[in-house]
């Protein structure tokens, strides 16, 4: 049987008149679907998008990471913009489930305004706890953590790269 999202109790009773006994539809929905925090970040994502890397103002200030998990198909592109050692802005694009999108959104909120060293202290458990992720969705918070760390690493590598000789 395919999962059905039920939003109307009369629809619920017409589809499942006796099969679920005394379970109320609202309780079933709460157990089956995303937490209110995931719902909020999914429908109102913060910092979605990407920086224009062709803009000279972003050339050496933006670090980019792309991470994914083949088993579930989630892919996160996360970018950090760093000025004077602080993350002044962050952006993400995520192809994946609601938990992956919410994890990316929340991670960008957590790191904005922090130094790169402070942002490197981000742990997936911080993300998972805030979003109330079930065990089966913990990998989404791990992807977000990895994306943050790799984006900062990319930024730092750009800083250590020798500048091109200009005529």
TrEMBL record:
One Gene Ontology cellular component annotation held by this UniProt entry: mitochondrial matrix
Top-rank taxon: Eukaryota
InterPro entries linked to this entry: ISCU (IPR011339), NIF_FeS_clus_asmbl_NifU_N (IPR002871)
Named cofactor requirement(s): [2Fe-2S] cluster
GO BP annotations, alphabetical order: iron-sulfur cluster assembly
Keyword Transit peptide among UniProt keywords: yes
Subcellular location: Mitochondrion matrix
Gene Ontology molecular functions: 2 iron, 2 sulfur cluster binding; iron ion binding
Function: Scaffold protein for the de novo synthesis of iron-sulfur (Fe-S) clusters within mitochondria, which is required for maturation of both mitochondrial and cytoplasmic [2Fe-2S] and [4Fe-4S] proteins.
Name of the protein: Iron-sulfur cluster assembly protein
Family note: Belongs to the NifU family.
Species of the source: Eimeria maxima
Major location category of this protein: mitochondrion
Lineage: Eukaryota, Sar, Alveolata, Apicomplexa, Conoidasida
Alphabetized UniProt keyword annotations: 2Fe-2S, Iron, Iron-sulfur, Metal-binding, Mitochondrion, Transit peptide
Residues annotated as domain NIF system FeS cluster assembly NifU N-terminal: 34-160
